[in-house]
Specification:
With 311 residues, the chain is an alpha/beta fold. 42% of the residues lie in helices and 15% in strands. Helix 2 packs parallel to helix 3 and helix 8 packs across helix 14. The longest helix is centred in the C-terminal third of the chain and has 18 residues. It is globular and about 50 Å long. The structure holds flavin mononucleotide. The site of flavin mononucleotide (FMN) has 30 residues, from strand 3, strand 7 and strand 9.
Amino acid sequence: MTLMQTLKISRPIIQAGMVWVSGGKLAAAAANAGCLGVIGAGSMKPDLLREHILKAQGLTNKSLAVNVPLLYEKSEEQIHSALAYGIKIFITSAGSPKKFTQRLKSAGCTVLHVVSTPDLARKCEEAGVDAVIAEGFEAGGHNGRDELTTMALIPQVVDCVKIPVVAAGGIGDGRAIAAALSLGAECVQMGTRFIATHEASAHENFKQLLLKASPTDTMLMMKRSVPVRLFKNKFYDEIKAAEEKCADKSELEKILGRGRAKLGMLEGNLDEGEIEIGQIAGLVKDVVSVEELVDRLMVEYHQTIKELPKF
Ligand SMILES: Cc1cc2nc3c(=O)[nH]c(=O)nc-3n(C[C@H](O)[C@H](O)[C@H](O)COP(=O)(O)O)c2cc1C
């Protein structure tokens, strides 16, 4: 069985779980376009997660998943809530694959876990995970500290596990989907590109900033605590200055701990807020509907593979 069959999707695309960006509306639109639609539970209290699941289920009867980053203490409650509302596909990240996989498998769920190294992919396979999402450090958001790029990471993960591999990080158009599948991935997961859609809950200021961003506007920060790729704004300057003074984990967390991600990405304060985008930002030139985006991605993908034999 292919991963697309397991996930019951007709396009090889997973719309990434993203804090403050991927609520029920985006996930349902992605699912209706044939992708795996993912609700990013990271920023949600369990009752808000329940609202988003119900909203998405009201808008689609296609494949929906919930992304649960394991670094937050409410991850257990989020999983409980998602299970109670019928979610059968989970994408866990930022923690040990051993933590919930067996429990989710016993409940009949499909589990994907995000990895940044081949070693972690092997651990996922041992833990019983169904597929790994190998994410290169080009990606927006939280990230591996080893700085493995998608191009280097994917084939090495593909060679070391038998379970399906999904490629993530720096995939912004159909050419990159063709490249990722050529490297042995069965699907791709795309985050940054989906921010610039009408259905994403990102603030309009954030979407407009993404359209103007260049590929050098981001940097992987906080490698000594929770590595995250940030857009270079005033908040980034604060983090950078603290890191240059060798601030410890608790000092960095103090700067982070003032709801900065919500302020930046949901409320649109582009100076004081935390803005997460990936290196692919320079390719994003318009805000479109998810349906239009996915159709375009598939046209570009087919065009690319058609032209390859020329070379
Ligand atoms: C705004 C934003 C928020 C994100 N939040 C999460 C999250 O909550 N959980 C997670 O596992 N990954 C998160 N990510 C990473 C994405 O799930 C995805 O793997 C990544 O965006 C892929 O790389 P790309 O941005 O180059 O497409 C986030 C990424 C972005 C851009």
